[in-house]
Amino acid sequence: MNTLDWVAAPAARPLHGDLTVPGDKSISHRAVMLASLANATSRIKGFLEGEDTLATARVFGQMGVCIEAPAAGERIVHGVGLHGLSAPTNDLDCGNSGTAMRLLCGVLAGQAFESTLTGDASLSKRPMRRVTEPLARMGALIETREGGLPPLHVRGGRSLCGIEFAPPVASAQVKSALLLAGLYADGDTTITELHPTRDYTERMLAACGWPIDYSPGTVRVNGGHTLRAIDIDVPADFSSAAFFVVAATLVPGSELRLRKVGMNPRRTGLLHVLRAMGADMAEENAHFAGGEPVSDLVIRHAPLRGIDVPVEHVADMIDEFPALFVAAACAEGTTTIGGAAELRVKESDRIAVMTAGLRMLGARIEETPDGAVIEGGSLRGGRVDSHGDHRCAMAFAVAGAVATSAITITDCANVATSFPGFIELARSCGLLLATA
User: What are phi and psi of 288, to 5 degrees?
Assistant: First the structure.
C-alpha cells in the first residue's frame, strides 16, 4: 500500500501567485452521472482528473456508457438514457469515493439488473445505512456487510415509490442519492432538511430539463421524465481553493488570486467564518457558469481572532474544517466548533485526526463529540499522521508554512483523489512542500 509522506517547511517568503485549482469534485461526479443518463451526447469542460471522479467515469463505462477524453479536463459523454445502462460483468469499484458510492446507490436502485459496489480499505469502513435505509423505504433492496458497511449489493428489478424524508443528519450525498432514485420512482420524492446542504444535484437536474422544485432546505422531484444532454463547464473546486485561502491568510505579506472558483452558497461557509475571524478576502469577476456562481478570490494576509463558529455555517463548510482547524490554531484567542459530528464519518474521523495532529504541533485543542475548542497560538514542527485523509494531509501542509520548523506528514497518497498536482501548485506560489 502506498503511504506517501510529505515534508512541509516554513514559508521563506510571502505567498504570491495567480492560481487555478482543479475542477470541482462534487460537480464533476454529478456531471458524469447525469450526462450518462441523458438521452444524447454531453460535453464536460473543467472535469477533475482525480482518482475519485475517474472512478465514477470507469463505473459508468462498465455499464455501457461511452466516455471520451479528448484532452485533460474534458469529457464527451454519450448518454444512454435513464434506462439504457447495461449490467456490469464485474464489481463496480468506487475507490476512495464516498460520493460515488452513495450517489450510485440511488442510480442503481432503479435499474433492472443486480450490481455490487466496492471500495478501498478506507471507503469500506464508512457507514452506508444513512443511504440504504431511506432507499429501502422507497422499495430498494441493498445488502451490506454487518454494520451497514460496503461492499453494497444492489438487487435490481424492484419498483420504487417516492417518499417524504427528513434526514436526521445534513448530507448532500444522502439527499442526492434519494433524488437520483426519485428519477425512477412512482410519485414525488420530497426531502426536507434541518440545515440546507449543497444543491449541485438540484441545479444540474434543472439544467438537464428535469422538472424539479427546490429552495434552500427543501426539494421535490417526481419520476417519469427524461434528461436532456447539455454542455457543462465545471468551476474550480472551492474545497481545493480553501487550503490556499487559509495559507495566504496566515503567511505574512501574502496575496493570492484564485481563478474561477465555484461560489455555490451551500459550499462557501468557510468564507463567512474566516471573514468573521478577520480575514481579508475579495470576490471579483463574478459570473455564472453552467448554472453555478463563479468568482475570482483575492486573498491577502490578515491576523485572525478566534470566534464561536456559527452553527448555521457548518453544513456549508463540512469539507473545509481541516483547513479551518489550522486557521483557528494560528488565530488570537479561542475558536469553538460545534454541530459538526458529520466530520467523524468522512474519509477519516477528521475531528480526531486534526486534534491529534495539531496537538503534536503544540496546539492547545480540546476534542468534543461534534467539534473542538481550539486556543490559538504558534505551531512547532513535528510528525503528524493524516490517516490517509486527503483534506487532513493538505491542511497539515498549510500548517507547515507557519510552523517554527518542518512538519512531516504521513500517508498522503490519497491527495490524488481530489487534488492532483497539489504539490506543484503549492510550490508555484511559495509553499515549501516536498515528498519525503
Answer: -115, 145
